Amino acid sequence: MLKVGVLGAGHLGKIHLRLLNQSEKYELIGFFDADIINGKQVAAEFGYAYFDHLNDLIDAVDVVDIVTPTLSHFDCAKKAMEKGKHVFIEKPITNTLDEAENLLALEEKYGVKGQVGHVERFNPAFMAVRESIKEPMFIETHRLAEFNPRGTDVPVVLDLMIHDIDAILSVVKSKVVGINASGVSVLSQSPDIANARLEFENGCVANLTASRISLKNMRKSRFFQKDAYISVDFLEKKVEVVKMKDAPEVPGDFDMILQNAEGVKKQIYFENPDILENNAILDELESFAEAIQKNNTPQVTLKQGTEALKVALQIIDAFENKTVLG
């Protein structure tokens, strides 16, 4: 088992603590929180060991799980990596692109592994269709959330949209060459609603919408590709897979046949992939443990987290500049 320590005992940090404590791949050594009062309250309530000093916890573990505010991600990860510790970092990887690129250099210098907490990669609905998404040419995403003051210190792009940015980059194997975006601040100092259009070198276009002042929650993505339409409901953990193939010469009574203007006939059929129930946060943490133990590449690398951050920051820049070329 890998010895692990958690930095940050806020809302998400408590979830990480609980899951790591029950994991068979980790031994939870304890946690650190800069808020001493909160740290001692969490220790008293749940029985986890509270460390008064950050460096003491880092010294005592093999893996550091960073669930602190984004502004402190870089400093925490840097301290851990310089001591030869592996790091799991909640999304976004860092506050700035320079910080993220510095972590990539530190990862290589000290021979440690890092993973970024883009948890939607481990959503069972997305995992069920991930291999079916091949060369999509149009993607549309909607990530809407009811207002919650937690997280409003950052633009909605870094708070919500970055989940969809990472998922899209994981299936579109092409470079972003154009970005057009708009963002509106309604309740917060930073944008609460954002829309972005990403254009890829291979011709794929992605249209992303995110809001944190919606009346209902929604997390849906739709992927359109040659002879297929794939819909993923990340919230309800459901999928729709509609595919087309050449129609048989003699269609059955219940076959759904379409004919285009050129007279080409296609048969529509549906696939129902199995969706396996899981705890996505536990799975991402345990996948990192396996990558360390087997010396494999983590499923969401620091480089991938850096690319997602880069696109997110370009979208934010485009709020004012309107168009950004990658």
TrEMBL record:
InterPro entries: Gfo/Idh/MocA-like_OxRdtase_N (IPR000683), Gfo/Idh/MocA_Oxidoreductases (IPR051450), GFO_IDH_MocA-like_dom (IPR055170), NAD(P)-bd_dom_sf (IPR036291). Residues 2-118 form the Gfo/Idh/MocA-like oxidoreductase N-terminal domain. Pfam families: GFO_IDH_MocA, GFO_IDH_MocA_C3. SUPFAM superfamilies: Glyceraldehyde-3-phosphate dehydrogenase-like, C-terminal domain, NAD(P)-binding Rossmann-fold domains. Transmembrane segments: none annotated. Residues 156-216 form the GFO/IDH/MocA-like oxidoreductase domain. It comes from the Bacteria. This is Oxidoreductase.
